[in-house]
Design a protein that fits this description.
6-stranded parallel sheet, Rossmann fold, binds uridine-diphosphate-N-acetylglucosamine, 8-stranded mixed sheet, 16 helices, alpha/beta, about 15% strand, 2 domains
């Protein structure tokens, strides 16, 4: 069902789109900064409903003070084609009705490309936040979404130096590209003091036998299809995590996709050991606490590579590449891939040395959303001329 409570006025109006969990913390500071602009553009928030679990939604909206969406498309899950097509089909009448001056999309999920594509074909301006990131791995669905969204965007905001280089190489006009920093880090810095301490999360999980204390555990997340959909790869990663857990207890919040794959392949028994704590998907403040208090993090998430760099916590990335190279060059990230020997070698190294010290990349300073809002205001006042 499509519900809408939004109105469009004569002022410039921006339709902001979220769909999946990693979008929520990026959009929160952008909406706040847009609402603070002197020109008071009309802002509407559309949730495609790509992620629909309570844990994937309300805990984030509430914790981050994001206003309830004006429109919810309730698309839910499906194959990439079905999900993307369903967002497009359902968002078209909303755009016809609201006639926004611009549609603002973030990140690289299916909802991002779907809404950008519908807007671009209707002649509505497209703004892409977190543009230009490239893993150069077209087997990742997100890479396709990134390349295509950037090609049809009118205003592109980048988080790190590599973004501009990639966009220029792909023929994007330099005047449209603005290096503003990282809105996800705006949210992280703004919420650090509210992070839920790990001991509270462990107490709630009712696992008094779990030995991991503050700063004495590894946090692990896995959800990439390449890592969790193939039983051989998934089993090898879980066995590697078990080896890690014999030296450093492991806390493992499970994405719904990962949990269903572990159950389907019958691997759950493997993880039934005292030094492994399995948790459901965490809310934002819980996840922030778990990252902040960890000795190190093992992950295949792009966002967590950035958040650990901002927190100064060592990150071991369980992928062969990253679209966020600044986290390796300047931050705390090491790319380990999925080979058990390499992962364990990097793990030993981090345990011995404490990992890379790292530093905060340029403009990861809590003010990216304000830079974005001010740039949008000038651009709209100049009739969308870049
Ligand atoms: C999506 C994004 C990915 C992002 C991830 C964060 C794309 C292509 N992928 O992947 O970039 O890192 O979100 O979580 O857009 N499910 C639920 N409840 C939900 C949502 C999903 O149980 O609320 C389960 C369903 O079984 C579903 C599966 O998770 O089929 C995958 O969900 P989907 O949104 O298609 O992709 P993600 O793997 O979450």
């Amino acid at each position: 069902m499509i519900t809408t409570s939004a109105n469009s006025g004569n002022r410039h109006s921006i339709l902001c789109v979220v769909g999946a969990r990693p979008n929520f913390m990026k959009m929160a500071p952008i909406i706040a900064a847009l609402k603070n602009l002197a020109s008071k553009p009309s802002i509407q928030l559309l949730h495609t409903g790509q992620h629909y679990d309570v844990a994937m939604n309300h805990q984030y909206f509430e914790a981050l003070g994001i206003p309830a969406p004006d429109i919810n498309l309730d698309v839910g899950s499906g194959s990439h084609a079905v999900q993307t097509a369903e967002v497009m089909r359902r968002v078209e009448p909303v755009m016809d009705d609201l006639k926004p001056s611009a549609v603002l999309v973030v990140g690289d999920v299916n909802s991002t490309i779907a809404c950008a594509l519908v807007a671009a074909k209707k002649g509505i301006q497209v703004i892409h936040v977190e543009a230009g990131l490239r893993s150069f791995d077209r087997s990742m669905p997100e890479e396709i979404n990134r390349v295509l969204t950037d090609q049809i965007s009118d205003l592109l905001f980048t988080t790190e130096r590599s973004g501009r280089d990639n966009l220029l190489r792909e023929g994007i006009d330099a005047a449209r590209i603005h290096f503003v920093g990282n809105v996800m880090i705006d949210t992280l810095l703004g919420n650090l003091e509210r992070a839920i301490p790990t001991p509270q999360i462990v107490r709630r999980a009712d696992r008094p036998d779990f030995p991991g204390a503050r700063n004495e555990y590894a946090l692990m997340t896995l959800h990439r299809p390449a890592n969790v959909d193939d039983p051989a790869v998934l089993k090898s990663l879980l066995e590697t995590a078990l080896t890690v857990s014999r030296r450093l207890p492991v806390i493992f919040p499970m994405h719904p996709r990962t949990k269903s794959m572990i159950e389907k392949f019958g691997f759950i028994g493997l993880l039934n050991v005292p030094q492994m704590l399995l948790l459901p998907p965490m809310g934002y403040l819980e996840m922030l606490g778990l990252m902040k208090d960890a000795r190190l993090v093992l992950t295949d998430s792009g966002g967590i590579q950035e958040e650990t760099t901002a927190l100064g916590v060592p990150c071991i990335t369980l992928r062969n590449n990253t679209e966020r190279p600044i986290t390796v060059d300047e931050g705390t990230n090491t790319i380990a891939g999925t080979d058990p020997e390499t992962i364990l070698r990097v793990f030993d190294d981090v345990m011995r040395t404490g990992g890379k010290a790292g530093r905060a990349p340029k403009f990861w300073d809590g003010k990216a959303a304000v830079r974005i809002a001010e740039t949008i205001e000038k651009w709209m006042a100049g009739d969308f001329r870049a």
